[in-house]
Amino acid sequence: MALFGSHANLLGESPLWDAVRAWLWWVDIRRNQVLAADSGGVLQREWTFDRPVGAIGLAEDGLVAAFADGFALIDGAGGIHWLASPAIGAGAIRFNDGKVDRQGRFLSGTMQHGGQAPALATLWRLDHGGRAVRLVRGLRLTNAICFSPCGGLLYFADSLERVIRRHAYDRATGAIGPREDFFDCAAHDLAPDGATVDGEGRLWVAMVLSGQIACISPEGDLVALVDLPLPYPSCPAFGGRDMATLYVTTIRDSGHRLKSDLADAGRMLAISGLEARGIPETRFVPDNHIRN
């Protein structure tokens, strides 16, 4: 386990391995930034926008992004091309976590600052062509969005509820089935943030409050807890030449409850030797073509 690069984020999130460039992309939500570094941790991109970026995915020419208030493409020069601005609600609500599904659609959910009642956050799907479809209502802090290797299962969590949910996911349409409670984080005194899936279908989940990464089997059993040397891990992603390195973003100052004065807080970690390999990211397809 080692520090990756020298950059320290305030609120690092949404790491994403680009195998074509051999770069790791991620966002710093509080600084309104999208960043990329090569395999040695040297920064290659550092774009700053006029609003927060909650999550990103690879696109056929650049990135797809959930900005605070809508979906857009980011081209190779950092230019923004807006796709959809769905009605996510007024006040302290913004897009947060997100992932591209196995067929090239982008899912992202919103969050409420403070987690106030009633629960107004939502989960959305951005379809080919830029249409935004609301999938789930009644959330407070959407996180841990990821898909099974075949793409037929969707996982996500409301972090304040501390339960990872599972839904059947229609690969042709993007429709979801009824909720199943997959893993009770509260029963293990854990709080989920971002997540990814390996080639065997195991979930690797950032447990933000305990400073750990949890490995959960496809059957919903806790396989391992990996202790980290930095506080507040926010999201993991597999990458590297053989997809066997787990990169983890962390938080220095979320702007709310999560804050650390540790010298390396906010740095990124690269973890090897986990005997797991990730799945290359699917790219968002901004047209009507669906990959079956």
Automatic annotation (TrEMBL):
Keywords, alphabetical: Metal-binding, Zinc
InterPro entries this protein is in? 6-blade_b-propeller_TolB-like, SGL, SMP-30
Pfam families, per this entry?
Answer: SGL (PF08450)
> Which residue numbers delimit the SMP-30/Gluconolactonase/LRE-like region domain?
11-251
Can you quote the record's cofactor note? Binds 1 divalent metal cation per subunit.
Molecular function terms in GO for this entry?
A: calcium ion binding; gluconolactonase activity
Q: Where does substrate bind?
A: R94, N96
Q: Please provide the Gene Ontology terms (biological process) for this protein.
A: L-ascorbic acid biosynthetic process
The cofactors required by this protein are: Zn(2+)
Q: Which residues form the active site?
A: D193 (proton donor/acceptor)
Binding annotation for a divalent metal cation: E13, N143, D193
Which PANTHER family does the protein's record reference?
REGUCALCIN
* Family to which this protein belongs: Belongs to the SMP-30/CGR1 family.
Name-wise, this protein is SMP-30/Gluconolactonase/LRE-like region domain-containing protein
Taxonomic placement: Bacteria, Pseudomonadati, Pseudomonadota, Alphaproteobacteria, Sphingomonadales
